[in-house]
Amino acid sequence: MQIPAGMSNVVYVKTDRGQQEMQQRGSLSPLLRRLLIVVDGNRTVRMLSTMLAGQDVMALLQALEDQGFILNPSAIAGFKMLGQPSQPVASAPIVAPQPVAAVEEDEAELDPARIHDIKVLMRDSTTQFLGLMGSNLVAEIESVQNAARLKTVMARWNMALRESRTGAPYADQYLKAVKTLIRV
Question: What residue ranges do the domains of the chain occupy?
Fold first, then answer.
């Protein structure tokens, strides 16, 4: 899907409702949930569309925005869009990105549903950027059952993305998304 003119540098942020959705695992489809996970207040629409290649990211973003999970702050007068001077906005319903916590902090608290979400994100990115060359890694990701094993496989997965020609530019973003899932 083509990104409309003027939208490629727009940065969406999660609203309070979006943050609650991340914590409570509501009724979003896996694809919308994956997009909500990677919307972090730093990634542009162009970056998001690359991360979800083959998807109509604009329609997905609109669905999340319509449901109140994300916000396009550039639609609020005076809010900073990438490459433009910023001016503060009074009382906008925006949740600032939080620092990414270390994996070790929440190891013991990862429930199977969260591990599943992390595995889906890791598996999909491996398939997208490594293709058939990542089949062994995909099998390893699928075998993860606990946080300790996840940490080991996560390191291999991140290194594989970093070494991939197409995945290298996004390796840090995906790692941050996985750490966000661990933290939430």
Answer: 13-76, 112-183
